[in-house]
Each structure stands twice: as structure tokens, then as C-alpha cells.
Amino acid sequence: MLRWAIMFFVIALIAALFGFGGIAGESAWMGKVLLVVFLVLAVFSMLFGRRGPVAV
């Protein structure tokens, strides 16, 4: 998912470079959304992920 976010940011930069403001804005917005989703999932994965073996 991080790869998708970076890809949308690159698309936004290229579109802004060529003067396509609408496409650049939408790509940047989608990149921000994907980055936030990635960060939330990463935090949940770290907190509730696989834990060490439980001693019985």
C-alpha cells in the first residue's frame, strides 16, 4: 500500500510539472489517503500482530 501511495505522489508531481492541476490535486489527495491507511494498518499490525509463544 505504501508503494501505491508513493506512486500517486509521483503521478501528482509529474502532472503538476506539465500543468495538469486537477489531476495533480486528485493524485495527491489519493496518495494522502493511502498513506494514512497504510500508517493506521502498520500501527495496528505492530500492536496486535503476532506475539511470542505463550508459556503454559
Automatic annotation (TrEMBL):
One of its GO terms (cellular component) is plasma membrane. The keyword Signal does not apply. Keywords: Cell membrane, Membrane, Transmembrane, Transmembrane helix. It comes from the Bacteria. The keyword Disulfide bond does not apply. The chain crosses the membrane at residues 5-23, 29-49. NCBIfam families: PRK13682.1-1, PRK13682.1-4. This is DUF1328 domain-containing protein. It comes from Limnoglobus roseus.
